[in-house]
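Thread: "does anyone have the structure for this chain?"

Original post by V.I.:
We have the sequence but no experimental structure in hand. Need at least a predicted one for the grant figures.
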Amino acid sequence: MPATTGTSKTGEDGGDGAVNLYAALSLEPTASTADIKRAYKILALKLHPDKLARQTNLSDDERAKASQTFQRVALAYEILSDDIKRTEYDARCELNGAKKDDVLVNVSFKEAITGGTKLAMVPFKLVCAQCNGVGMACARCAACDGKGEASCGGCEGKGFASPVQCTKCKGDGVMDDYFHGRVHIPPGCENGTRLPISGRSQHVRVRILPSKQFARNGLDVTSTLTLSAKDAAEGGFFEIETVYGIETTYFDEDTKSGDSKTLDGKGIKDGKKVGNHVVRVEVERAPTPDVEDEPEDQAQEDEAEEDNAAAAEEPPAKKSKADESETEMSLEELLAAKKAKLLAQLEASAQK
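Reply from O.Q.:
Generated one for you, tokens below.
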């Protein structure tokens, strides 16, 4: 939900007495990641020390108070904008339905959509078997072999020596151990879902790992298909990876960036409702030739073509009268030669 003008319902303190991070951003604990980023941006623009330095009408006390407020805002954003840190904080303060003994379980995007079973390692405290939870251990008296004889000067009839710290639990009386429990991840599980652990009273909090390939939009799954400029221009059948496997779909010729195809029923299943898989096309840009790397011969050919084109565009030079008369004489001589040759061939034919 969007930022409010007051503090959150949980008050100024968190569950363990710490400053309420949601209240520092004027948000409710149910705020989305987008709400957290938006609230931080607004407050940072207002309280950042660089901006306050330009305000000459503030007293030293006002600057100090604003600086402390900005530090709380920055801390709140650092923790609440991180999924893992926010989950741990919610559990510690028992916010958003979380409990202090909840265990964080990482789930891949595909596992969250299709469902499955995860193994959760649940930490718990085991009573030390060596000291039975006392934290201290008493060695048996060596003089009377632990019999506790009244005449024993080593133990004065107690049967054991003076108590010392337990070497196994280091005086804690308990030891850390882990229970391996199974957790059923239902299809369409959302980030932050609280699920029971088989065989334990504790629960897990689901953290869906971000995917480089898929994104979620309601019940729909979205992805991007990158095509070369040639493939986009020619079109054809292309393989699309979905959370359920490989699908093949057809794209028309001259496909452009932003075009999309919908694969029905390949999205998130929620009861009788089923989402789709929407694939968006991104066309790679064709490489542009580098003018500086153009071969020398090619540059020379281009220059020659330009010269020829320029020469072709120039109007023909005006011929002088001497040139015109010389051309006319050449034509007359040529005609006379052809005429003489033709007459010679006719005379030869007549003689035969």
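V.I.: this helps a lot. The longest strand covers residues 116-127.
O.Q.: and Residues 215-283 form a domain with the HSP40/DNAj peptide-binding domain fold (CATH 2.60.260.20).
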